[in-house]
Amino acid sequence: MLKNLRNYLITGIIILLPLIVTIYIVTNIFSAVDGVLRPVVELIIGRSIYGLGFMLTLGVILGVGAIGTNVLGKRLIDYGEKILTKIPLVRNIYLTVQQLINALFLKNKTAFRKVVMIEYPRKGIYQVGFLTSQGMGEIQSNTDEEVINIFIPTTPNPTSGMLILVPKEDVTYLDMTVEEGLKLIISGGTVVPEKGLINQ
């Protein structure tokens, strides 16, 4: 009974956390846009409009999204990023957040590709990790074997961890999805995918 309650609690947190973070971010964006633009618009039109802050925020988000999908907009964004990456403190924060979002939310070549299992830190002890890419460039040219880049996340915070370069033949590929792998790691092994369940 207690084990089930713990599983329900952890699963609930995993499900709700993205929603809570999204609400937090959107709320802060709304507050910022509403605080800056609403007084200006109300001054221009001469009266207060119910829901104006929400409409302005939605308009700004949609506008940025529309700009970011065309060639000229992408160039403007790239130019803005170049300026941000030249500011010492802002550069570190911006790049860290950008890489984290790309890794966790965007399904591109830099995202986690597959859930794998390796023997680490010694034979007989296994770690669950994520395949990020094949070994390339200088790293691959300085190794005798073909290596694969594996990210080993920490529990319960999968955004931190370490990168391990593992020989291709030493990697075991698992059937679970990346989402299932993240749940397994965040829960400390209490939330196991159906395929991974065994009778005890």
TrEMBL record:
This protein's record includes keyword Transmembrane helix: yes
UniProt keyword list: Membrane, Transmembrane, Transmembrane helix
InterPro entries (UniProt xref): COV1-like
Keyword Transmembrane recorded: yes
Transmembrane region(s): 7-30, 50-72
PANTHER family xrefs: COV-LIKE PROTEIN 1, PROTEIN LIKE COV 2
Name under which the protein is recorded: Uncharacterized membrane protein
Source species of the chain: Selenihalanaerobacter shriftii
